[in-house]
Amino acid sequence: MQIQTLILGACHTNCYLVSDENQNAVIIDPADDAPSILRAAQGLRVHNLLVTHGHTDHILALEAVRQRLGAPIVISKADAWRLESETLINQRPYVTIPYRAVKADIQVDETSVLTVGALSFRFFPMPGHTEGSMAIFCGGAVFTGDTLLKRGRGIVTLPGADEPLLNRSLRRLASIPGDYDIYPGHGPRTMLAQERAENPYLCCAEQK
């Protein structure tokens, strides 16, 4: 598995291009720079666009990339409505080009599995940052969106956030056996074992 990281937009959002040895690929969280994403995707067969949660900075290039690549959009059932709310997206101050509603092609939950070439993606609900935030597992990697960040977590001040629920989600993730590479929605990559030991929202989550 190859993972290419792009840091895009006003919020320095991580967009990931995940591919197998035959160039079958997905794009995770197409942030607000479609030209950069499309350049990075040259030579790849992009099968799906995966969205960890429906916040503005993770989806501003979604429709432009879908129109160019023809790849279906995948998001959790609980957050799919967010893609269709122009008001919710356009209220953010850094949206300079008006967002137009997008409809999800595939809505997933914890029972879903998405196979792309040699890659298999599983979905782990992590509500709290938004109602339908999820982590995406693929092999030894977990793409956590804005739930788990290096030594931190996503904010809980936007509509739909729930701090106790997010802390429970983090505890559930921390309880999974073994170690994983963590690819967050913002900031540097980390490891689940490292976060269990150093992240106050995981190592001390039972107190929150």
What does this structure look like?
Strand 4 (45-50), helix 2 (62-69) and strand 5 (73-76) form a beta-alpha-beta unit. This protein has a single domain (2-207), classed as Metallo-beta-lactamase, Chain A (4-Layer Sandwich). The termini are far apart. The longest helix is centred in the C-terminal third of the chain and has 12 residues, at 163-174. It has a six-stranded mixed beta sheet, covered by helices on one side. A six-stranded mixed beta sheet has the order 7-8-9-10-13-14. The chain has six helices and 14 strands. The model has no long low-confidence stretch (mean pLDDT 92). With 208 residues, the chain is α/β, with parallel strands linked by helices.
Q: Globular, elongated, flat, extended or rod-shaped: what is the shape?
A: globular
CATH architecture: 4-Layer Sandwich
Strand content range: 25-35%
CATH superfamily caption: Ribonuclease Z/Hydroxyacylglutathione hydrolase-like
Report the top-level CATH class. Answer: Alpha Beta
SS-based structural class? alpha/beta
Number of structural domains: 1
Q: Helical region count?
A: 6
Q: What is the N-to-C order of secondary-structure elements (H for helix, E for strand)? A: EEEHEHEHEEEEEEEHEEHH
Q: Uncertain runs with pLDDT below 50, 5 residues or more?
A: none
Q: CA-to-CA gap between the ends?
A: 36 Å
Query: Largest sheet, described in full?
Result: 6 strands, mixed
